[in-house]
Amino acid sequence: MAASAVVMLFLYLPLFVMVVMSFNAGASVGLPFTGFSLDWYARLFANTQIMHAIGNSLIVAAGTVAISLPLGVMAAVGLDRYAFPGRAIFRRIVLLPLILPGVITGISLMNFYIINGVRLSLATIIFGQGTALVCVSLTEVYARLQQLGRSQYEAAQDLGAGEIACFVRVILPNIRGAVVGAALISASISLDEIAVTYLLTGRQNTLPMVIWSLLRREATPLVNAAGTLMVVATAVLVTAGLRLSRGGEGSGG
Amino acid sequence: MWLLPPAAWFVVFLLVPYLITAYYSFGHMQSYRYVPGFSLANYIRIFSTAPYSGAIAQSAVIGLLTAVFSSLAAYPVAMVMAFCITRPAARSAMYVLVILPWWASYLVKAYAWKTILGPHGILNSLLVDLHLIASPMTMLLYNQASVVLTLTYIFTPFAILSIYASLERIPASLLEAAEDLGAGGVEIFWRIILPLSVPGLLAGAVITFALGFGDFVAPALLGGADTLMISTIMINLLGVANDRPLASAIGIIIAGLAFLLIGLMDWAERRVTVRL
Questions:
Q1: Span A52-149+175-246 CATH architecture
Q2: How much is the ipTM here?
Q3: Where would I find the H helices in chain B?
């Protein structure tokens, strides 16, 4: 019990420190805490480079969800319905981008774009992240389908509903929570992603890429404020996503 | 056919790129142009010349330390989640508490440690205020230890979830039976809980190792002159040096190592898993 509390403290203390320091009036990244101020947030919102990057990140997140969600849902329905040879291999391949370090997916897609003469842009990031995050939608929706069972679907088929009608009127209403949840979680991961994004970025930078370049130059308290916003966004999106996709029942991964 | 679109997508956007990378890795650069070929020169160079082979060895050490430390940190939390928290609401709250730091921005987490360990960081300020040290220590940051600490921090939540997934499946009846037969807490842990949690422990450790091995964010932000990791080299090769074939070969080696470990894990899991 005590060891577990220490580990949880270890997990939250660094983030907590960053959040507190983002309200520091002083100009140093670290202590002393010279007083409460929203100054760094004001500067953050006044920084056009960062605001532009936030806009880019939102575009990338929306595009990523638009690609990964339909593919993940289709793969989940397929995996849930058919037993076929190579099923295990298919699941493995979908999970690859999650298990392999992100730079591997990054360099592979970069080579792919180069060979096809595609110029790096926000679109190249979207295709990369969209591919890497299919596993998130697949996992969330597949878990929900497994809970659901087959009886409703089979009843609808017996009553003459076609494949599309079945999906739209029987399956979709039942997995709606998981679908919306998966979208929120994917969006949150996309907003933070750097390992895959790094090698696929052209002229347009996402927020993590801008923070990365800021950090390479100097540590500025501006990053405390930006980091706090990113952590808050993750907390909101992931909590809402888990609640929707698992109906408040937290189990499994 | 539901599977056709996703399968086709994965072939085009994942398998084909991986294959292209493998193909590139056998060629070489000549006066800034890529020349295709089928030579193992890049691989020989990586395994036999100092910066590359040394970086692979160091990445392996860092990955291993990360895997060991995050598994050790994760185990007690997973135990508490599986056996001490019984109310479903409390359990799902705990689950969210563990998963939030896992999905929080990777970059932000590495940055947070940079500010804590830095010369004006919380740790140094605290030690100076307590008069334990006279002036801020610079040795806290920019070395292998700070990279391992940060990677351990980043991957501990993942290890918790992985171990918990195994512990959750242990039926309470098994533990009760052991207790009725007179086993103490320690004996139950060593003879029942730990062996049954091996699959989750192993899966968590292997993936943590692979991700730590291939990381470039933590060494760039917190590593020093002594921490040269293989992914950092790969990224540098793509930048100024513009040696894509060599970088691709490094990518293939990292991927190959990850596959090898996952294969070993599957094999080990089949051998040690007890059917319940």
A1: Orthogonal Bundle (1.10)
A2: 0.84
A3: 4-10, 16-24, 41-48, 50-79, 88-103, 106-117, 122-129, 144-167, 172-180, 185-188, 194-196, 198-213, 217-222, 230-238, 244-272
